[in-house]
Amino acid sequence: MNAPTIASVNCGDCPIRHRAVCARCDADELGALDAIKYYRTYESGQPIIWSGDQMNFVGSVVSGIATLTQTMEDGRTQMVGLLLPSDFVGRPGRDGAAYNVVATTEVVMCCFRKKPFEELMVRTPHIAHRLLEMTLDELDAAREWMLVLGRKTAREKIASLLAIIARRDASLTPKNATNTMSFDLPLTREAMADYLGLTLETVSRQMSALKKDGVIELEGKRRVTVPDMGRLMEEAGDDSDGGLIG
Amino acid sequence: MNAPTIASVNCGDCPIRHRAVCARCDADELGALDAIKYYRTYESGQPIIWSGDQMNFVGSVVSGIATLTQTMEDGRTQMVGLLLPSDFVGRPGRDGAAYNVVATTEVVMCCFRKKPFEELMVRTPHIAHRLLEMTLDELDAAREWMLVLGRKTAREKIASLLAIIARRDASLTPKNATNTMSFDLPLTREAMADYLGLTLETVSRQMSALKKDGVIELEGKRRVTVPDMGRLMEEAGDDSDGGLIG
DNA sequence: CGAGCACTTGATCGCTTTCAATAGCTGTGG
DNA sequence: CCACAGCTATTGAAAGCGATCAAGTGCTCG
Fold it and tell me: In the 153-192 stretch of chain A, whose C-beta falls under 7 Å of nucleic acid strand D?
């Protein structure tokens, strides 16, 4: 993958310009952000932030995928967030990180030093409002996820995760009036297990079962095609109509 | 319980004045809120908002306890939020309710008609900032909860819930340097089960087990006393030191 | 006193985990 | 070019935990 040239992207050309925390900013505000931003690249597998560490920056994922995880002393881990391009990392007003953030693919971050960002936020309602909006969306996602974790069977969990990824992909590639869709799984079986509160063996078994039942098709380990999204939604235990329009 | 007199509380005397969405407001701003607020009381068990309904208001819980739940078509339900005094209900910028909100005890709400509140929020950064702060706290709580739902055993789940309630109670009654504490469970066994992604039978069994092992003592069905908070935290699978300072 | 409700307790079932072996892929080095 | 290590994923067998089905208890209210 070729990452965008580091430290040289003009905000106006930024691929996440209208989805990230800066989405509502006007030219002046963008200039102020521009003055305190810098880019940083992380390799696949590399930690971005470790729980308990001092946070010196906040920022947005520009490209790539990262995971937010929580770990117990005995090693059990639960993913609590999946960070995609435009998602915000860090919490203004808090010093220590509460979660581990790990790059799952190569990740490019647009970082802001925390102190200047917080000061800017106080003066810039457009940023604060956008951040509120994004946080409310994340809270909704977390709550949908809680239903998945607390009440769904292993098969439903897998179907739910596939549906979420498929839906996101659809929003980025807004074509395809048909019912079928294809995408690359950005997660290992283990990461899927951590997402869903399962073991990786159970994930593997349920993937095989969904494949055997014709709900999904697999090409290699990572390429998934869903012949009938409605069917997948049924398997997820959701209203089949709630599909594409979120 | 005697509720505060309805429609006659001055914001300055409000019990949630410095914790709710209005916490940061100055006198003028409070006046503006005052002009669009009204109180409403719900009896125990009564629905406050039903998922899918049009939302005409947003507001704060003044007293009592309410639950936020999500339901699947076949009836499986998962609690996704526990609303205590000062917690905010509703999402500015969205018309339809996404969850069921039900009063678990008698509940008094301080309501704002949605439209005027949204307009006021745009003009009043103090409100938007406080709401952002509260939403970030809720997101943190939701993520801690996800670890509970996804990775903890039934016994750990129960211990975690008891620890959360105990900690909250401690923050309201800031005395008690000792290790022991007492509180009333505000939830039925079924509500606890919905909170934790368990069945009510399993909740009952694990409560009995924790009692038998001396982790908790029960007086009647609802009064719980914890002789040793450190022990409870261990049972919850948390760092025992993370206890009182959140 | 009996109905209704919340809760407890017992017995059994079944899904997911655990433990273990195997397959497939990729990269390295002889 | 093949052998082998290391990693990810699949599959099988057995065990365990929580769910389910089913009584039974205790309390409140009529």
Answer: 188-190
Q: Can you give the distance from the CA of residue B3 to the C1' of nucleotide D28 in angstroms?
A: 24
Q: Are B61 and B81 in contact (CB under 8 A)?
A: no
Summarised one tens digit per residue, pLDDT across range B86-109 is: 999 999 999 999 999 999 999 999
Closest A-chain CA to B194: A150
Mean pLDDT of chain B: 91
Ordered domains of chain B (ranges, CATH): 5-135 (2.60.120.10), 152-235 (1.10.10.10)
Bases of chain C within 7 A of a CB of the protein: 6-11, 15-20
Q: Which residues pair with A226 in a beta bridge?
A: A181
pLDDT tens profile A164-190: 999 988 876 666 556 789 999 999 999
Residue pLDDT, tens place only, B152-169? 999 999 999 999 999 988
Closest-CA residue to B163 (of B143, B148, B146): B148
